[in-house]
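Researcher: Can you fold this with guanosine-5'-diphosphate in place?
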Amino acid sequence: MNIHEYQGKSILKSYGVVVPNGKAAFSVEEAVAAAKELGTKVCVVKAQIHAGGRGKAGGVKVAKSIEEVKAYATEILGKTLVTHQTGPAGKVVNRLLIEEGCDIKKEYYLSFVIDRNTARVVMMGSEEGGMDIEAVADTMPEKIIKEYIDPLVGLASFQAKRMAFKMNFAPTVIGQVEKLMGALYRAFMAKDCSLAEINPLVVTNDDKVIALDAKLNFDDSALYRHPDVAELRDESEEDPKEHDAAKEGFSYVTLDGNVACMVNGAGLAMATVDIIKHYGGEPANFLDVGGDSSVEKIAKAFKIMLSDDQVKGIFVNIFGGINKCDVIAGGVVEAAKLVGLTVPVVVRLEGTNVKEGREILRKADVPEVILAESMEKGAQKIIELVAKQNAKLIG
Ligand code: GDP
Ligand code: MN
């Protein structure tokens, strides 16, 4: 789960990370009031969305007067920000962070993340902060310094010092940097984070070390231990389809293509996405209906898939184990009638009672539902039908 920058900063502050004074604002009036309360000469107006790259997209503005705060807040609130992390559709800004400005001497990068290869938390740092760290990793990988942390020992003081020196901090600020690293690590561990990223971490002209941005991601499986964090969820930032799916108990993942995949089981989901790709198609998503193939569940799954305009066809690929194929087939046919399909559906069934299941599909009087004899044929068929649909749209 993600949270907003201002929420992240408030958590980090409670662990001793130095952050600028600031306040969240949901309206222009609140933004102006927050700036007056801060009372600083310079204020920064920052768009709060669950994506980075706001600076380059015009979502971070430095204001030198209350009038400017008002003008920037008016401009940014309600605006759709398109950054390299939002995708082309962008994200609407509903919240702002009004923060005291700071006089930056240099920007750095600092993060903690889980490294699966070593099964350890790794601290990463770079003196090339501020800009997009992926580009640094690509073009100057030697500029990214890493320290792997022993889970029993925790972040050792020599590691923090070594990292700080390698990042070329001035000796006068090393103490502050080390303290901040320790505080960030404690927050990361205590809150079961999967990522804690400060970009930029800055040194100011009066030699203060401050976290100017904060991105915290949390391990969903550990959220039950942190009701205070779970409370910070902002549903408006999440994909409404993924939301609806979670409510129904489906695992659902949005992808970029146009073939929706309804499956049961995570392994079959991966195999289905792979085979669509193998035959030149592009999956729009996969939805794992799990063990329940009642008409209601399948109808709900169809509805979620059809609510995505990108979807031009659905591939149902189900293995009937405990779920029997005839029950699944009946469910698909009834659900198709109930929902009123607008795109073709190719169904591949295998497993218990497969003969009966296929018979039901063959006899079904729903022209959009087509039976496939195998997974390969099914994948090829749905790709062909989607291509035809696209040709029709263009023609
Ligand atoms: P991101 O682009 O979404 O990662 O947003 P950031 O919070 O990292 O802000 C982007 C950039 O805005 C930073 O790299 C800074 O250069 C600049 N910025 C942010 N806060 C301040 C501030 O208080 N003073 C000044 N002068 N610049 C700031
Ligand atoms: Mn940033």
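Model: Folded with guanosine-5'-diphosphate in place. Residues 375-394 form the longest helix (20 residues).
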